[in-house]
Here is the input.
Amino acid sequence: MADFKSFVLFVLLCLPLVQSGGPCVDEAYVEGCPSYRLRGLALSTAYLPHSLSFRAERVSKVQLTSDRAFRFNLTDTTKYQVSLEKNGSRICAAIPGILNETCGHWYYLGIDSTSPLLFTLDCVNASHSCRFHRLTRVALHPGADPSVLTWRNRANTTTLSVGITNGKEGALVTLRNAATGTRSYHNITVRGASGGPPCVFSSPVLNLNYTCKKALTPNDFLFIADSKSSYFDLSAFTPEEDVPKGQQTCST
Here is the structure.
Protein backbone atom coordinates (compact mmCIF):
# COMPACT_ATOMS: atom_id res chain seq x y z
CA MET A 1 0.00 0.00 0.00
CA ALA A 2 2.87 2.39 0.82
CA ASP A 3 4.40 1.76 -2.61
CA PHE A 4 1.06 2.49 -4.26
CA LYS A 5 0.69 5.79 -2.35
CA SER A 6 4.21 6.81 -3.39
CA PHE A 7 3.36 6.07 -7.01
CA VAL A 8 0.15 8.15 -6.84
CA LEU A 9 2.08 11.08 -5.30
CA PHE A 10 4.66 10.93 -8.06
CA VAL A 11 1.96 11.01 -10.74
CA LEU A 12 0.16 13.96 -9.12
CA LEU A 13 3.38 15.96 -8.92
CA CYS A 14 4.24 15.49 -12.56
CA LEU A 15 0.94 15.45 -14.44
CA PRO A 16 0.48 16.56 -17.12
CA LEU A 17 4.16 17.21 -17.74
CA VAL A 18 5.87 13.95 -16.93
CA GLN A 19 7.81 12.07 -19.56
CA SER A 20 9.20 8.56 -19.28
CA GLY A 21 12.64 8.00 -17.78
CA GLY A 22 13.85 9.49 -14.51
CA PRO A 23 12.25 11.67 -11.84
CA CYS A 24 11.20 15.27 -12.42
CA VAL A 25 13.64 18.08 -11.90
CA ASP A 26 12.00 19.26 -8.67
CA GLU A 27 12.67 15.86 -7.10
CA ALA A 28 16.31 16.01 -8.25
CA TYR A 29 17.11 18.99 -6.04
CA VAL A 30 17.49 18.31 -2.36
CA GLU A 31 18.55 21.87 -1.51
CA GLY A 32 17.55 25.06 -3.25
CA CYS A 33 15.96 25.50 -6.63
CA PRO A 34 17.31 25.45 -10.19
CA SER A 35 17.89 28.66 -12.10
CA TYR A 36 15.77 29.87 -15.04
CA ARG A 37 17.04 31.68 -18.13
CA LEU A 38 14.62 34.58 -18.58
CA ARG A 39 14.63 38.18 -19.71
CA GLY A 40 12.62 39.19 -16.68
CA LEU A 41 9.79 38.54 -14.25
CA ALA A 42 7.41 40.32 -11.91
CA LEU A 43 5.92 39.27 -8.60
CA SER A 44 3.31 40.57 -6.19
CA THR A 45 4.47 42.01 -2.89
CA ALA A 46 1.36 40.59 -1.21
CA TYR A 47 3.29 37.39 -0.42
CA LEU A 48 6.30 38.27 1.70
CA PRO A 49 9.02 37.76 2.76
CA HIS A 50 10.36 36.89 -0.67
CA SER A 51 13.92 36.27 -1.79
CA LEU A 52 15.38 35.72 -5.23
CA SER A 53 18.71 36.09 -6.97
CA PHE A 54 19.91 36.71 -10.50
CA ARG A 55 23.12 36.89 -12.47
CA ALA A 56 23.90 38.01 -15.98
CA GLU A 57 25.40 35.88 -18.74
CA ARG A 58 27.07 38.96 -20.19
CA VAL A 59 27.04 42.76 -19.88
CA SER A 60 23.41 43.77 -19.36
CA LYS A 61 21.26 46.78 -18.59
CA VAL A 62 18.81 45.87 -15.86
CA GLN A 63 15.72 47.74 -14.70
CA LEU A 64 13.95 47.18 -11.40
CA THR A 65 10.41 48.57 -11.47
CA SER A 66 7.70 49.21 -8.90
CA ASP A 67 6.28 52.59 -7.92
CA ARG A 68 9.50 53.95 -9.41
CA ALA A 69 12.30 52.62 -11.61
CA PHE A 70 15.93 51.85 -10.81
CA ARG A 71 18.40 51.21 -13.62
CA PHE A 72 21.87 49.75 -13.38
CA ASN A 73 24.48 48.01 -15.54
CA LEU A 74 25.82 44.53 -14.86
CA THR A 75 29.37 44.17 -16.11
CA ASP A 76 30.16 40.71 -14.72
CA THR A 77 28.48 37.42 -13.83
CA THR A 78 28.22 38.08 -10.07
CA LYS A 79 25.11 36.64 -8.44
CA TYR A 80 22.98 39.34 -6.81
CA GLN A 81 20.53 38.58 -4.04
CA VAL A 82 17.21 40.46 -3.96
CA SER A 83 15.48 40.82 -0.61
CA LEU A 84 11.85 41.90 -0.18
CA GLU A 85 10.34 42.47 3.26
CA LYS A 86 7.48 44.34 4.91
CA ASN A 87 8.27 47.25 7.20
CA GLY A 88 5.00 48.47 8.66
CA SER A 89 2.81 49.59 5.77
CA ARG A 90 5.76 49.84 3.39
CA ILE A 91 7.69 47.31 1.33
CA CYS A 92 11.49 47.39 1.48
CA ALA A 93 13.78 46.04 -1.22
CA ALA A 94 17.55 45.67 -1.25
CA ILE A 95 20.14 44.23 -3.63
CA PRO A 96 23.50 44.28 -1.82
CA GLY A 97 26.20 45.56 -4.12
CA ILE A 98 23.95 47.54 -6.45
CA LEU A 99 20.92 48.85 -4.54
CA ASN A 100 20.76 50.01 -0.93
CA GLU A 101 17.57 49.29 0.96
CA THR A 102 14.73 51.42 -0.34
CA CYS A 103 11.14 51.41 0.88
CA GLY A 104 7.82 52.46 -0.57
CA HIS A 105 4.21 51.46 -1.11
CA TRP A 106 5.05 48.80 -3.66
CA TYR A 107 2.37 46.48 -4.98
CA TYR A 108 4.71 44.53 -7.25
CA LEU A 109 8.36 44.21 -8.19
CA GLY A 110 9.55 43.76 -11.78
CA ILE A 111 13.06 42.93 -12.98
CA ASP A 112 13.88 43.13 -16.69
CA SER A 113 17.11 42.99 -18.67
CA THR A 114 18.41 43.68 -22.16
CA SER A 115 19.88 40.16 -22.25
CA PRO A 116 18.99 36.90 -20.46
CA LEU A 117 19.45 36.64 -16.72
CA LEU A 118 19.68 33.46 -14.68
CA PHE A 119 17.05 33.75 -11.93
CA THR A 120 16.85 31.57 -8.84
CA LEU A 121 13.58 31.86 -6.90
CA ASP A 122 13.00 30.83 -3.31
CA CYS A 123 10.81 27.87 -2.53
CA VAL A 124 8.73 29.67 0.10
CA ASN A 125 6.49 31.14 -2.58
CA ALA A 126 6.46 28.06 -4.80
CA SER A 127 4.31 24.96 -4.91
CA HIS A 128 5.19 21.37 -5.83
CA SER A 129 8.70 21.75 -4.42
CA CYS A 130 10.33 24.27 -6.75
CA ARG A 131 8.41 23.83 -9.99
CA PHE A 132 5.51 26.27 -9.82
CA HIS A 133 6.35 29.83 -8.84
CA ARG A 134 3.80 32.48 -7.91
CA LEU A 135 4.38 35.38 -10.32
CA THR A 136 2.44 38.07 -12.15
CA ARG A 137 4.59 38.18 -15.30
CA VAL A 138 7.26 36.16 -17.09
CA ALA A 139 9.46 37.68 -19.82
CA LEU A 140 10.99 35.14 -22.20
CA HIS A 141 14.03 35.49 -24.42
CA PRO A 142 13.10 34.79 -28.07
CA GLY A 143 14.51 31.52 -29.35
CA ALA A 144 14.57 29.57 -32.59
CA ASP A 145 12.83 26.58 -30.97
CA PRO A 146 9.33 26.59 -29.46
CA SER A 147 9.20 26.85 -25.67
CA VAL A 148 6.52 25.38 -23.44
CA LEU A 149 5.64 26.68 -20.02
CA THR A 150 2.87 25.37 -17.82
CA TRP A 151 0.49 27.75 -16.10
CA ARG A 152 -1.73 26.94 -13.14
CA ASN A 153 -4.68 29.13 -12.33
CA ARG A 154 -4.65 30.37 -8.75
CA ALA A 155 -7.48 32.87 -8.39
CA ASN A 156 -10.00 31.97 -11.08
CA THR A 157 -8.14 33.96 -13.67
CA THR A 158 -10.04 34.19 -16.96
CA THR A 159 -7.64 36.43 -18.92
CA LEU A 160 -3.93 36.54 -19.66
CA SER A 161 -1.89 39.31 -21.26
CA VAL A 162 0.57 38.19 -23.94
CA GLY A 163 2.77 40.08 -26.37
CA ILE A 164 6.14 41.64 -27.19
CA THR A 165 8.10 43.90 -24.84
CA ASN A 166 5.73 45.66 -22.45
CA GLY A 167 3.86 48.41 -24.27
CA LYS A 168 5.12 47.59 -27.78
CA GLU A 169 2.46 45.09 -28.76
CA GLY A 170 0.13 42.79 -26.91
CA ALA A 171 -3.38 41.58 -26.22
CA LEU A 172 -5.61 40.68 -23.31
CA VAL A 173 -6.86 37.20 -24.18
CA THR A 174 -10.06 35.75 -22.72
CA LEU A 175 -9.36 32.16 -21.80
CA ARG A 176 -11.58 29.12 -22.01
CA ASN A 177 -11.50 26.44 -19.30
CA ALA A 178 -9.18 28.56 -17.15
CA ALA A 179 -11.57 28.89 -14.22
CA THR A 180 -12.17 25.19 -13.68
CA GLY A 181 -10.35 25.22 -10.37
CA THR A 182 -6.96 26.03 -8.94
CA ARG A 183 -5.65 22.55 -9.71
CA SER A 184 -5.93 23.01 -13.47
CA TYR A 185 -2.69 22.85 -15.44
CA HIS A 186 -2.38 24.30 -18.93
CA ASN A 187 0.55 24.16 -21.35
CA ILE A 188 1.28 27.35 -23.30
CA THR A 189 3.55 27.12 -26.33
CA VAL A 190 5.57 30.20 -27.29
CA ARG A 191 7.34 30.51 -30.64
CA GLY A 192 9.37 33.45 -31.83
CA ALA A 193 12.91 34.38 -32.82
CA SER A 194 14.56 37.64 -33.76
CA GLY A 195 14.33 38.15 -37.53
CA GLY A 196 12.14 35.07 -37.95
CA PRO A 197 8.40 34.54 -38.54
CA PRO A 198 5.95 36.41 -36.27
CA CYS A 199 5.85 35.09 -32.73
CA VAL A 200 2.92 32.93 -31.60
CA PHE A 201 1.35 32.15 -28.22
CA SER A 202 -0.90 29.10 -28.30
CA SER A 203 -2.84 26.80 -26.03
CA PRO A 204 -5.85 25.11 -27.70
CA VAL A 205 -7.49 24.11 -24.43
CA LEU A 206 -7.40 27.74 -23.23
CA ASN A 207 -8.56 29.21 -26.53
CA LEU A 208 -5.26 31.09 -26.62
CA ASN A 209 -3.99 31.71 -30.14
CA TYR A 210 -2.23 35.05 -30.58
CA THR A 211 0.11 35.88 -33.47
CA CYS A 212 2.33 38.92 -33.14
CA LYS A 213 1.87 41.63 -35.73
CA LYS A 214 5.43 42.96 -35.62
CA ALA A 215 8.75 41.22 -36.21
CA LEU A 216 10.98 40.72 -33.20
CA THR A 217 14.17 42.72 -32.82
CA PRO A 218 17.22 41.53 -30.81
CA ASN A 219 16.14 43.80 -27.94
CA ASP A 220 12.60 42.42 -27.66
CA PHE A 221 11.26 39.87 -25.22
CA LEU A 222 8.01 37.90 -25.12
CA PHE A 223 5.78 38.15 -22.09
CA ILE A 224 2.90 36.34 -20.40
CA ALA A 225 1.22 38.15 -17.51
CA ASP A 226 -1.56 37.55 -15.01
CA SER A 227 -2.53 40.54 -12.86
CA LYS A 228 -3.98 38.25 -10.18
CA SER A 229 -0.70 36.38 -9.61
CA SER A 230 -0.79 32.69 -10.50
CA TYR A 231 1.65 29.82 -10.81
CA PHE A 232 4.13 29.33 -13.65
CA ASP A 233 6.22 26.19 -14.18
CA LEU A 234 9.50 27.47 -15.65
CA SER A 235 11.44 24.20 -15.67
CA ALA A 236 11.62 24.28 -19.49
CA PHE A 237 13.88 27.33 -19.11
CA THR A 238 16.42 25.68 -16.80
CA PRO A 239 19.87 25.69 -18.43
CA GLU A 240 21.12 22.20 -19.21
CA GLU A 241 24.06 22.58 -16.83
CA ASP A 242 21.61 23.13 -13.94
CA VAL A 243 19.79 19.84 -14.52
CA PRO A 244 21.50 16.85 -12.81
CA LYS A 245 22.49 14.05 -15.17
CA GLY A 246 19.74 11.55 -15.86
CA GLN A 247 16.97 13.95 -14.83
CA GLN A 248 14.33 15.73 -16.88
CA THR A 249 12.54 19.05 -16.63
CA CYS A 250 8.95 17.73 -16.75
CA SER A 251 8.15 19.81 -19.81
CA THR A 252 6.62 18.66 -23.04
